[in-house]
Amino acid sequence: MVDVAIIGGGPAGIAAALTLKARGVRHVAILERESVLGGVPRHCGHPPFGLREFKRLLTGPSYARRLAAAAEAAGVKILLRHSVTALKPGGRLEVATPEGLVTLNARRVLLATGAREAPRSARLVGGDRPLGVLNTGALQAYVHLHGLVPFTSPVVVGTELVGLSALATCRSHGIHPVAVVEAGSRAVARWPLGLFPRLLRIPTYYNAGIDEIIGHGRVEAVRLRDGREIACDGVLLTGRFLPEASLARLSHLAVDGRSGGPEVDQYGRCSDDAYFAAGNLLRPIETAGWSFREGGAIADYVADDLAGGLPAAGDEITLVAGEGVKFVVPQRLSRVAPLRGKLQLRVERPISGQLRVSSEEAVLYKRRISTRPERRILVELGEMKPPGEAKRLLVEIVS
Amino acid sequence: MYDVVVVGGGVVGCAVARRFVLEGAKVALLEKGADILSGASKGNSAILHTGFDAPTGSLELACMQAGYAEYMDIRARLRLPVLETGAVVAAWNEEELAKLPGIVQTAHANGVTDVRQIAPDEVLAREPRLSPHVLGGVLVPHEHVIDPWSAPLAYALQALVNGGEVRRNTVVLSGHFANGMWRLETNTGTVECTTVINCAGLYGDILDQRLTGEENFAIKPRKGQFVVFDKAAARHLRTILLPVPTERTKGIVITPTAFGNLLVGPTAEEQDSRDHAAVDEETLRMLVDKAVELVPSLEGMGVTAVYAGVRPATERKEYRVRHETARNYIVLGGIRSTGLTAALGLARHAWKLYARMHERLTNPIWPQAPRLAEHCPRDWQTPGYGEIVCHCEMVTQREIEVTLTGPLPAQDYNGLKRRTRAGMGRCQGFYCNARVAEMTAGRFANPLAVGGTHG
Fold first, then answer.
1. Which of A260, A286, A283, A239 is nearest to A117 (CA)?
2. Is 0.90 exceeded by the ipTM?
3. Which of A136, B262, B316, B388 has the fewest CB atoms within 10 Å of its CB?
């Protein structure tokens, strides 16, 4: 029996462990399926990481090493090569380890399993299925963890921040992207980062997509929707993150089809109140620094809960993602006054209008907004007072 | 000098090689691809058919039923799974509903006597997430699901460990029969044997022509695209959902897989290419929409994988099986989607046609197939596996090492995937692809990594 079992040893999970230890929680364990702690930053061989956490400008791998060292120093029980295979009601975990299967009981479980990019299949990209079609995460594992390269002249799809990170990874490892393809009319990443491909003199095609991947054995070319054919030896699919929520999906926990992560309240509490969730599992996608802070904040609630200081689950207001809103996290609000914390939103398409939170006829919050997909949108919960009888709040953007 | 050369390492060729080795013949299996199962057998719907809807009295039906029976008989010894799903042929309009009694009649004529028509409420009681628009169905209790790759792999392995030979990357270029003996010229040298069995699948007609100089049949490649939904989808449907067939094709099926996913497909697209199995977005979306139409709760379900297979249809519907006694030559051609079920039966049929006697193996070795089915014990449940390499499919380091170093090792990434499921899960290699590249370095002619970061 442990007090808190944290599933996933990335920034959110480690931050949560550190907070829990600092709050005096005795038995805190991180269950990490890999052989080392650190999560996705381990593969990101470039800055900026760690500015808030360590007051230093670090690369991903050194940030990950510092996180791991901090967890160890704090007395967190670190269980590597521990793959959780099932979440059971009340905090019982089934775990596979190289030494055999074990069951672990925890008073509370924090899910911090992160996110990953959508693979080729989930994007329904047509054509042949040769070698050389990868996500950024896989490319970075090739070069940073194994010293290998999967291609030398790929076409890069997507211009989210991670796409630019992918370009940086390519450039520093002798990989020469031959084109960048973006579905939208301009770069997703904010100016001036969106200029990056142009600075690297890589031809960039907007309003474009891959119609067909061509190649026997290996990628030989791609054909774009406009018929243009580009010779290449790989396709790097960047961005379009999805929460790594499969454990939650296969469990008794409620999962939000819009965010892709488990449904939580403002404390990060899942539909089974023994379970909490934090980090990019909640929503695609935020920075490592954001996930770190979020892990710490939700761990504070977990510590409160262990001490009996959290409002009981049950009396809740449901948040509904309306017009223009792709998802809202949290999905539920425990009915307390005053409300604390923030709503996190994303939009489905570039949109301008009034962001509005309403209960029946009453508008509780509004502001003008002009935004694009993947941009962070926050709403302070402290700024709204839902009526006592409110069952649901509608979050929408009225053009 | 072999008694028998089997040309083609698809499911039929693997089963035939196994049968002849067990019967005591000296056998070589030649496969032109880098690995077995690299043609038509790599993409199918993995159903073990009862033959309820096959043409009554046909060789296809006989082979399917013999194949089904033998699979059930040997599967425990080869450690092969069966997922007991049953199937429902569902009617969605009056015209389809009117065809159901005929389907039951055919099934009974085919000896599948437990098949019966069921009312819409019984369909929905069995599959509550099915669209309530269903008008009725035919229940086929013993239509089941198997692992479409481990089964033929186990057949080939049993041929191999009992004295057969498997030569991959070997293409038969020509053949001459004289004085009771075949001389086959291949890209890897001359092979001599008394009997040739053509199991060349999509290239069956080309091989036939190379060996006989005649045009006896023509392969008309028929592509089928598939979409595999995430494992979370498996709880939405437990039964194989079949459409009422049309004249031309069995139509689009939604079926659980042995690996715990849900599969929808195939399409039936005529094409010229025998090995070009491309997918296209429009068709994949159509398949997803079709699945959601029939099982509405699949709305928004994630897609794990998409693939296409090409099946060796011919200008006629029936199997193209021919035995030329004058030149010791057997053709098992035009074996389409029922081949996975019928393979063991076809192998017995070929043995009967062959009609020679060898000294039967009295105590053959029974190799163990990989343990990949979700409802059976997996390798990760046994300690000492090292590490989990593919987290989505829970593939262990130990499994991958065995696959690379054991008998009939994987020689390309697809072969590795079929033997272990590494990279076949929801992330499609996001986490494990680089590690697999490292583990397979120097082993594949077409490697995952094209070089190192330092030169």
1. A239
2. yes
3. B316
